């Protein structure tokens, strides 16, 4: 069995992820395809993840890829997380990870409607509500969530969500948009606010794309997601893949068989998986530094992170549910985080003594990112606490 050392895994991610200064990607689509998907839960993450991987890219370039050329499309998928997908990967998500999320969302809605007693057939009532919303998007119409609630009376229905001290009474409208978005029937179109703030104007997926790609079945969808994940993140363990997919072990295992994945041994003593034939030794890439944003796909690509992250640093860089804040990387390992000063300057906050060479390289990346921001400041829920060296999780 071919062995992959942690050092080789770090060299591979440096090249394939485009975060090594000598191995950037040429454009937003190439960079996103290389990463399989980009996290998009926080609006600035897509822009900053691409800025870390594409030299000379501007905010306008990212906006064009998302809203003009539409080569990147936002879609709710794995682990009920919003991602920016390369357009050609959407059918695989709709049939697999997104379908799983949509099924869970539909059952939650039906349970809440049943508890409220709004109709003798709560499932039919929820489906009728989704169709009432979907009809608003005929002929390419675009609306924000507030407008939809005004146009569709049933969307104002208030239902009880959660239990115990987490119980809330909330309107139905946002949940209907989430369900239709997971199904791939509507999509977050142009942003009605600043690039740092999420105020999406929803529209029909057919109108947004112009022509829907050919559908695939669920098994083929999972297989394609796994094939791309293996290229981006392989070698990875079964636990890594199940976590990233947000799927069952059986679905992940079937997909590994479908793509003909090969086993390799890892320094941890566990079995990793790679694409067929993707087992060549990874040449050394030399010293390198990178600054990655909150929820960057590299930081969030694996569940088992010891090969690039000191377990003692986890509480200072990740929150209690595993979400990563901004991170500073040196030679393929996370060595700290970065924050912005009120004037927009980026500062590296190390988790230990970096050494002169690492500090100089990270300072150059901080200057590069400061120039990219051009004086704008992106707020982060992690920023103030990370600047003070406090625990996040």
Gist of the model:
This protein has about 400 residues and is of the alpha+beta class. Among the domains are: about 90-210, no CATH class; about 310-385, no CATH class. The protein has helices at about 5-15, 30-35, 45-50, 60-70, 90-95, 95-115, 120-135, 145-150, 175-180, 205-210, 220-235, 240-245, 250-260, 315, 355-375, 385, and strands at about 5, 40, 70-75, 80-85, 160, 170, 185-190, 200-205, 260-265, 270-275, 290, 325-330, 335-340, 345-350.
How would you describe the overall organization of this protein?
The chain is α+β, with helices and mostly antiparallel strands and 393 residues long. Among the domains are: 92-209, no CATH class; 309-387, no CATH class. It is 40% helix and 17% strand. It has helices spanning 6-16, 28-34, 43-51, 59-68, 90-95, 97-116, 122-134, 145-151, 173-182, 205-209, 218-233, 238-245, 249-258, 314-317, 356-373, 383-387; strands at residues 3-4, 38-39, 72-77, 81-86, 158-161, 168-171, 186-191, 200-204, 262-266, 271-274, 289-292, 327-330, 333-340, 346-350. The strands form 5 sheets. Strands 11-12-13-14 form a 4-stranded antiparallel sheet. The protein has a 3-stranded mixed sheet with strand order 1-9-10. The chain has a 3-stranded antiparallel sheet with strand order 2-4-3. Strand 7 (186-191) and strand 8 form a beta hairpin. Helix 7 (122-134) packs across helix 9 (173-182), helix 11 packs across helix 13 (249-258) and helix 12 (238-245) crosses helix 13. It starts with a strand and ends in a 6-residue tail after the last helix. The model has no long low-confidence stretch (mean pLDDT 94).
